[in-house]
Design brief:
Strand order of the largest sheet: 2-3-7-8
Number of domains: 1
Radius of gyration: 17 Å
Number of strands: 10
Structural class: alpha/beta
Strand content: 5-15%
CATH architecture: 3-Layer(aba) Sandwich
CATH class: Alpha Beta
CATH topology: Uracil-DNA Glycosylase, subunit E
Shape: globular
Oligomer: single chain
Distance between the termini: 15 Å
Length: about 250
């Protein structure tokens, strides 16, 4: 059974439904959707409807924060989808998480690591369609964060050294994985891996198996291929060990 943490969605849904069909970036990055800001550090956080949680997942993919592209995709999907809060938010997650070039790169690397074989599916692209029930996609910072008006990259400022960002990582992210057992977490990049390591040390999230060394799949990560090759064999061994110990029900 899915867990939908939609305490915020009913409030913001009314504003989402008021958006024009051809809305602009400026329309989204406006006061109705602004959650918090740190003016001194040039940070702004905007609501993004990624509240759906799948406790039956066998794999968690954890990014840094939704970017503007994913935020726009999420809003458009929410505008076009009818049904209960759970149905809308489940569809938003499936259609919008890591959407675009990032998803293409992500799937390619996961397939090369044979994760699809361990899950009993043809390709990890099916985690965003037919076999979405095997996946929980999330981010350390669950709502879209912008630094100096641009997508926040997780490096400047540091998440755990910035009170506003640390609050979201420590207070909001644990709720995104609460109740999910026997799950492999794929942290997208060294920044996510470092934060998850700290959260585990503090006892804020369970000691899930972290797949260490997975690069951030952004097209802007010029070191992605080299980083992947350097850690490929070690990651494949960790994946084999993890999936040999749990049953997979498709």
């Amino acid at each position: 059974m899915a867990i939908v943490r939609h305490a915020m969605f009913p409030y913001f849904q009314k504003y989402i439904k008021l958006l024009p069909a051809a809305y602009t970036d400026h329309t989204l990055l406006a006061d109705p959707f602004l959650l918090e800001e740190d003016r001194e550090r040039h940070l702004k956080i905007y609501y993004t409807p990624f509240e759906y949680v799948n406790p039956a997942a066998k794999i968690i993919i954890a990014g840094i924060t939704p970017g503007l592209h994913q935020m726009k995709r999420a809003y458009s999907t929410a505008m076009e989808t009818s049904g209960t809060y759970e149905e809308v938010l489940r569809t938003v997650k499936r259609e919008s998480s890591f959407h675009g070039t990032m998803r293409k790169n992500l799937v390619a690397m996961m397939d090369e690591l044979k994760i699809a074989d361990h899950l009993g599916i043809e390709t990890c692209s099916q985690l965003f369609s037919t076999y979405h029930h095997l996946l929980h996609s999330t981010s350390i910072l669950p709502h879209a964060v912008f630094y100096k008006g641009r997508n926040y990259n997780g490096s400047t400022p540091k998440i755990m050294k910035t009170p506003l960002l640390r609050k979201y990582a420590e207070n909001y992210f644990p709720g995104n994985v609460e109740g999910i057992q026997e799950t492999l977490i794929v942290p997208l990049g060294v920044n996510v891996q470092a934060v998850l390591g700290e959260l585990i040390e503090k006892g804020l999230i369970p000691k899930h198996r972290l797949l260490r060394g997975f690069p951030h799949p952004s097209g802007g990560n010029g070191h992605r291929i080299r980083q992947f090759e350097e850690h490929k064999e070690q990651m494949m061994e960790e994946i084999r060990e993890f999936f040999s110990s749990i049953p997979i029900k498709r």
